[in-house]
Structure prediction request, 563 residues.
Amino acid sequence: MSSVRRVYYYLVTLITLGIFVSGIGVLLSLLFDITISGSSAIGQSNFIQQQLSLGLAMLVIGGPLWFFFWKSVRKNVSGNNLEIGATLRKFFLNFILVVTSLTAVFAAQAVLKWLMTGLPQSQSISGSLATFIVSLAVWYYHWRVSELEGHPSPSSKTLRRWYIYIVSGWGLVLLAVGLVQLVNASASYLPIWGNHLIGAGVWAGSIPDSVSLFISGGILWSFHWFRMSEGDTASNLRQIYIYLLAIVVSSIVGLVALTMGLYQVFVWIMGAAGDISGSYFLFLDWVIPTLIVTAAIWVYHQSVAQEEAAELTERLLSAKRVHLYIMSFIGLGTLISGLIILFGTLLDLVINNLSPAIAQQPGWWQKQLSLCVALMIVAVPLWSYYWNQIILLSTSGGIAEWRAKSRRIYLYVIIGASIIALAAALVNVVFQSLSGLLTGNFGIGVLQNSRWSIQSLIVAIPVLIYHWLIARQDQHRGAEAAVSLKNITALIDHQSRDLIGSLEKKLGAKIRILEYIGALAGPPMLSDEDLTKLTDEIRSSPFPKVMLIIHDSRFLVLPYQEK
Prediction:
């Protein structure tokens, strides 16, 4: 099937499928309106006639058209692996799976809430119930088609992974949010919050919403994570899901909750809380469950990542590397924020002592100091841990790690931001000073107008110097040197794979591996000096394509060309 014809068939099939299932949904919704819903519209014959006419029209027109085009597509696909693995076909199937699974889970949430609240007649559930049934049926049919056909092409496997990890991510978010809301709503009814009273019963509040969200999200996530992604350890998308979605996002949410909780506690300890009754601590009923849930997500996915790490090659370390730099950046940013607030508080205290006439709100310095302490408590261990991990990775990774794009971006973003902050702060300090001198008002007002710039200068200067020195050190090691665009292929036995990994680190380049079959003489015994000589020989070759042959502790470097 030509590409244009394939686009035509799948586009028309998708549109007619939408018309067909919408018609079924309208008819089912009308049926549920008549049988189980308490909607006032069902007593109106005009409403029933309109819905019945619309549903039948969409069903009669969309159904045969979808069946005709889908049958034609299936006929072309039958027994043809090229069509089965076609990118457009797999995009079509996985697009439907993503849309219907997410639609079904949100409809299921409404249905579960309706069931848990005692099937109230005042709540119209017909639309959600019809949507759930239709979406689930469409999802199941296309899922079975996709699974029975298999995934014979690389693009089909990639698209399937996109579906799995997008939906797994949504399910995990819904699961976590539902659990946090459930604990939060339940804790709100505990008799420990002073004057904070909730009149309605426990089940009449938001608990049914939370339970339904937790159940529907949990089913969605567990099916796709444990059933669909089982054994997919070699996937780059899996690493992105684990490191960048599950670990990084849960870390950010947990750290925000921890910071806000510590801030509120320190405000209370320092006597700056306006309300010291039990209701002041209501923030704990969302801070604590958020910390517990995000910590559980972090610990679980971190353990999964560690278990699978042994099976990963260097090519799959990029997601882990990005994760380390993102978390280090978050920790450093939080640390900088805390230090800026600390120096700002000290400057404000100095200004107030020099000029008592400047009015401040009661408890201002306690609140600022509380926020500073909370940020520092979170930031110092966070940044120290991840930055030490980066140092260890760069020490063992050699030139390949120093040249890593994520490392270069991290360093230059911090250096650039520090230079911009310094320039802006210096401009303001010079402006305020000159303005004060020229107008004859050089005094405490200049210091007050320059305090944010001064505290930014105090923090930005050491940050800039430290990261500038690291960037310069990387440059001296060759991280910024132009990389020779050589196509390197190695012909080895499987016992030499570790050696290729060491060689890749020295070269700072990837090596294509070919394995030969035959009698093995044992793993190659090449010293570090031999590896250095081998690296120099490959780099010095004037030809763009090089074949490396390693056998019995001997190696050959041969230039070649393809005819």
Notes: The radius of gyration is 32 Å. The chain has a mean pLDDT of 82. The chain has three domains: 3-232, 269-476, 487-559. The first strand starts at residue 487 and ends at 492.
